[in-house]
């Protein structure tokens, strides 16, 4: 299975969690890692290259830190540039060119997980915050995998190993 990790971290130099996750994932042979801020900070997105990468992958991982309860701004800019309905539905019989590929989110957040419960500080869950990505996957014809989420004070060594194993695992749980 070919997996591409699209890393959207605006400040990798000061990252602890995402840096460790990427290092662990990079040790897997079938994984390609793309640092999207290194490629596109202040630069136009190479739409054709990004589409080729998506079409050649079996699993697409969007990895990012949760900033102000959302993905970093480059994620939205990338989605708006790359996803176009004419391109998406140019497959056989109008089928999505990304049909049946997997979309996995890897999200790091800096507040305790108990704050993200129905009775917690924010009265919402991480899954609810990430719901727009699940809707996007439906539109794209992709299978939405159960997200990998990590609180920054979790056991980072253990979590990074689990992440590296997860992104290459054949049968990830699909969220319905």
From TrEMBL:
Keyword line: Oxidoreductase
Keyword Oxidoreductase: yes
Flavodoxin-like fold domain segment(s): 1-165
Record-linked InterPro entries: Flavodoxin_fold, Flavoprotein-like_sf, KefG/KefF
GO MF annotations, alphabetized: electron transfer activity; FMN binding; NAD(P)H dehydrogenase (quinone) activity
PANTHER family, alphabetized: GLUTATHIONE-REGULATED POTASSIUM-EFFLUX SYSTEM ANCILLARY PROTEIN KEFG
The protein's name in its UniProt record: Flavodoxin-like protein
